[in-house]
Design brief:
mainly alpha
């Protein structure tokens, strides 16, 4: 037979779609643009993000990507508050407190240095003005 197939028809795999970096950059730019306007137009931005999510899920289903939502079993995890962990937290807390104290101290020193600089600059300007006025009085005009 000319048009009939003698072998059973095998299901063809979907064609491979190549996604370029430019495509991903454009999609990311569109998402960032939508998220950036979220403060001004929250309802519209939420709708756009919802549509994007639906389209992405439909695209992934079309590409036959298996998306699984696995639940993590945390029943075997126990909170083990050992003394070592508590000591580490205490040490970090004390280090953080000493760093905060140093920041306050350094800020105070900086403001005193700025004030000292201003005083010295004003004194220098006053001295220069005094020297120039003495030069004018000494030199005959």
């Amino acid at each position: 037979t000319v048009f009939a197939q003698t072998e059973p028809v095998k299901e063809q795999a979907p064609p491979q779609i190549e996604v370029t970096i430019d495509d991903l950059m454009l999609q990311e730019g569109a998402l960032l643009k939508a998220v950036g306007r979220r403060n001004r137009y929250p309802a519209k931005a939420a709708g756009l993000l919802g549509m994007t999510l639906k389209r992405n899920r439909a695209m992934l289903k079309g590409l036959k990507v298996n998306i699984t939502r696995e639940k993590v079993d945390l029943s075997g995890v126990t909170e083990n508050h050992s003394e070592g962990v508590e000591n580490c937290f205490k040490k970090v807390n004390s280090d953080l407190k000493s760093c905060k104290d140093l920041v306050v101290e350094n800020t105070s020193k900086m403001s005193r240095l700025v004030e000292s600089y201003k005083i010295l600059r004003n004194a220098e300007e006053a001295c220069l003005d005094d020297i120039e006025s003495k030069k004018r009085t000494i030199q005959p005009v």
